[in-house]
Design a protein that fits this description.
Elements (H helix, E strand, L loop, with lengths): L13 E2 L1 H30 L8 H26 L1 E2 L15 E5 L5 E7 L10 E3 L3 H6 L7 E6 L2 E11 L6
Parallel strand pairs: 1-2, 4-5
Antiparallel strand pairs: 3-4, 3-7, 6-7
Length: about 170
Amino acid sequence: MSRYRPPAPKKSAYITPEGWERLSRELDWLWRVRRPEVTRSVAEAAAHGDRSENAEYIYGKKQLREIDRRVRYLSKRLDELTIVRERPSATDKVFFGVWFEVEDEDGALHRYRIVGPDEIDPTSGWISVDSPFARAVLGKAVDDEFTVASPNGETTYAVVAVWHEEPAE
């Protein structure tokens, strides 16, 4: 029995300015604050003697590996990302970074924003540009209908509104 897993599909290299800022802050915090804290705690734990049975030392080393892995990923990912700053000229169509509202077949309204795969947040309605839903709605204008295949079957939606600024709650 093989443990081979095919590589994950390549993510889109687009990000909003807010997403770029968030990832940059995370990288800076990990490198300047978190890693030095963990390094100090590992050094203190190592000073206590036998490292093979020292849980604080072993856990600290594991934390360092996780921090280093995330720092490598963020550094590499930030280099390959393209920040999408320009607003589309068509203000009534769904494009990357804009907010939009759709109505499903049951009449329920759903609010979303299409963002890069590194900044998705389902609780805020931020969906990945790589998702089937986002691919189906991209370029649609207000009153356009589109269909999305899901595990429960196909669902039809209608675009109700499109706006460029974050909605006030």
